[in-house]
Amino acid sequence: MKNPGTAQTPVEGLNRRNFLKLLGGGIAVALTYSDLNALSKHTAFAGDDAIAAWIHILENGTVTVYTGKVEVGQNIRTSLSQAVAEELSVPVNNIEMIMGDTLLTPYDRGTYGSLTTPVMAPQLRKAAASLKEVLTDMAAKQWNVAKQTVEAKNGQVIHAASGKTMSFGDLTKGKKILLAVNNQVQLTPAEKWSVAGTPVAKVNAKSFVSGKHKYVSDMTVPGMVYGKILRAPSYGASLIAADIKNAKISPDVHVVKEDNFIGVTAPDPQTAANALARIEARWKTTAQPSRAEIFTYLKTHSQDKEEKAGEAVDKAFQAAPVQVQQHFEVQYIAHVPLEPRAALAVWENEKLTVWTGTQRPFGVQEELAEILSIPKNNIRVMMPDTGSAYGGKHSGEAAVEAARLSRAVGKPVKVMWTREEEFKWAYFRPGGLIEVAAGASNEGLLTSWEFHNYNSGGAGIEVPYEVAHRHIQYHPSDTPLKQGSYRGLAATANVFSIESVMDDLARQLKQDPLQFRLNNLKDERLKQVLQSAASKFGWTRQKEAGHGYGIAGAFVKNAYVGTCAEVIYNKSNGQLQVLRLVVAFECGAIVNPLHLENQVMGCVLQGLGGALFEAVDFKDGRILNPSLSSYRVPRFGDIPELDIVLLNRKDIPSAGAGEAPIVGVAPAIRNAIADVTGVKLYTLPLLPHGMTLKT
Fold first, then answer.
1. What is the pLDDT of residue 172?
2. With 90 as the cut, is the pLDDT of residue 265 above it?
3. 3-class DSSP assignment, residue 681
4. With the CA atoms of 217, 218, 224 and 227 taken in that order, what torsion angle do they form, in degrees rounded to the nearest 10?
5. Which helix (H) or strand (E) is 280 found in, with range?
6. Main-chain dihedrals φ then ψ at residue 128, nearest 5 degrees
7. CA–CA separation, 29 vs 55, rounded Å?
8. I need a surface site. Which of 325, 534, 573, 614 has the fewest CB within 10 A?
9. Is the torsion defined by CA of 513, 518, 520, 523 positive or negative?
């Protein structure tokens, strides 16, 4: 990433007239305007000759790859580099990856939904393979030999028979060529991978451990000032009036008031905060539902009518000799990213450049264009690799705030949210009420399944087990808190409910919970992860006194996860401890086993918090626990022994792995608690009072 102080300001899109001026000579694989429209109706480029680069080989041999995807800790920068290196036959360390820059990269809707590996990686593979095909063809023509006798390897073209070799850089010298992607090009099958599929180290790890990498929070530019924003005291509050005269505590402080938007700028964050505190504002508040009544509220404020399950489902449930009918409550939880929202905005010649940590650079660009009423092509958004997101940075609040202040004061402005602001004003994982009624035969086969999710979401809502009569429905609801994406999102709540009911049915039947699941499954991949987790865990071994075992499985985001948990219960004081977790995960062909293991580990550790104790407390529109001292996330002492089993299916296309492993943690622990205590829990978090079971 270039120094923000010298970064290029926006231009009129990337097109044939300025492509080579910006990127330099050489050979590039690009998309035309019509190709971009095929990818998305909302393109960031304009004009019939607009283009977007995928891969560019400079005359010095440097390979630059462009993608609108961003790096938020999932290490996709490395795995995408591996995909290109595999198809282009160059070393990974020869590749420079430009990510999340709305001026230089192809339009992308955002980095979410575990879509980068299954969607972006194949596109870059095609671009790289197309480029290699052209390079070998160019060499063959230059040497006057048959194309099939020329090989690309390690950044060179080689003609073995004559001993001729030429680097990609030498081959591209003096060239200014734009190529189209060949969608029919042959890609390397997973069983023949030599770079992809291997544990390549994180490509820019040194910059992070050395402190060289600059997060938005670290960035400065000449003349920059810091901004702070006046915020409402609670959700639903509106500004009546504001007296701003006392905020002018020094000549360097500027107060910006545009309708209900009020902010201050100052040479340093503390002065800005002191000035903001002197603004006297009056607010009109409205009644808001509180945490104590939230689940009743979500059901009564459902936005659609509940569809009837149907006579067949009702009859099957009523006739079932074994029944479970239960409702589940799932609290709102926060993302708690390591780096709170931050943005740096610079205006120059009516054009805007913004650096911000976001999963959707092009979405933020569109948001800025709408709010600021300027053309999108006058806005450049850049996203440096940022300090985590977990689905929590789709929106561009800090970018909008910095841009508005910067335009008003005529200086570059950086806005950094505090941890308290991040807790209060970022969006949350939705809370939800889930109602389930399920029946089974005496032989242990599911006969009926009725499932209703209120507000939490529809991801992962489909039951993966075989059942003849089912009715499954998601009911959107009015939410009192701002809510949005989260790692695993609704699948965490839905899988928790599904797998808890499956365990309750198995225990009523006095059947082994693993065998009960296998008896009701036809999906061999789900069977395999359950059996792999159970085998590594030692599912059939004798339990020690006070120990409980739990298991859960799921299919989410085209990936499969099986999770086993062991807990210890001290009956004398009610204390619980998660002793051990085993997670088996399968997402098709593995691109990088080291980083996949890290992804699974990250999911499990984050999942512990939502499973055990994370919950947003709120009343009358106010967040009551907006700090890490009052909102508990997992600590080192909470982390159990963890074994990860990765199943490599080279015969299946790679799926994403950033979300699916999280969903098995809560139900596996819940089922282990039920096993050792006999107490069946139906809420998330399971242990809101710490690691104490209150019965």
1. 87
2. yes
3. coil
4. 20
5. strand 280-284
6. -65, -45
7. 5
8. 573
9. positive
| Preceding amide of 688 cis, omega within 30 | no
Percent of the chain scored above 70 by pLDDT?
93
Q: What percent of the chain has pLDDT over 90?
A: 84
Pairing between strand 63-67 and 95-99? parallel
Q: Is the model's pTM score more than 0.85?
A: yes
Whole-Å CA distances, 46 to 36, 53, 369, 439, 510: 10, 15, 15, 57, 65
* Per-residue DSSP letter, 247: G
Single-letter residue type at 178: L
Count helices and strands (H / E) in the chain. 17, 28
Within 8 A by CB and 6+ apart from 452, the residues are: 306, 434, 435, 436, 473, 474, 475
Q: Give dist(CA 583, CA 166) in Å, integer.
A: 47
Q: Tell me the residue length of the chain.
A: 695
Q: Rounded to whole angstroms, how far apart are CA atoms 435 and 493?
A: 11
| Of 400, 116, 672, 588, residue with least CA distance to 686 | 672
The answer to whether 610 and 685 have CB atoms below 8 angstroms apart is yes
647 Rama sector, left if φ>0, alpha if ψ -120 to 50, beta otherwise: beta
What's the pLDDT score for residue 44?
37
Using pLDDT thresholds of 50, 70 and 90, give the confidence band for residue 20: low
Q: Which residue has the tokens 């409402």?
A: 232
Any idea what DSSP says for residue 221? Answer: -
How does pLDDT run across 623-665, given as a tens digit for each residue? 999 999 999 999 999 999 999 999 999 999 999 999 999 999 9
Q: 554 and 569 in contact (C-beta within 8 Å)?
A: no
Residue 157's pLDDT band (boundaries 50, 70, 90)?
very high
Residue listed under structure tokens 């995408």 = 80
Q: What is the pLDDT of residue 16?
A: 61
Phi and psi for 499 in degrees, rounded to 5?
A: -75, -25
DSSP notation for 126-190: HHHHHHHHHHHHHHHHHHTS-GGGEEEETTEEEETTTTEEEEHHHHHTT-EEEEE--TTPPPPPG
Q: What is the widest separation between alpha-carbon atoms in the chain?
A: 85
Lowest model confidence (mean pLDDT) among 42-46, 149-153, 476-480, 578-582? 42-46
DSSP state, 639? Answer: P
Sign of CA dihedral 121, 126, 132, 135: negative
Nearest to 27 by CA among 116, 134, 156: 134
Q: 557: exposed, middle or buried (C-beta count within 10 Å: 0-12, 13-18, 19+)?
A: buried
Contact call for residues 536 and 584 (beta carbons, < 8 A): yes
Tokens at 18, concatenated: 């300025």
As a whole number of angstroms, the distance between CA 486 and CA 633 comes to: 15
Is the Cα dihedral 418, 422, 425, 426 positive or negative?
positive
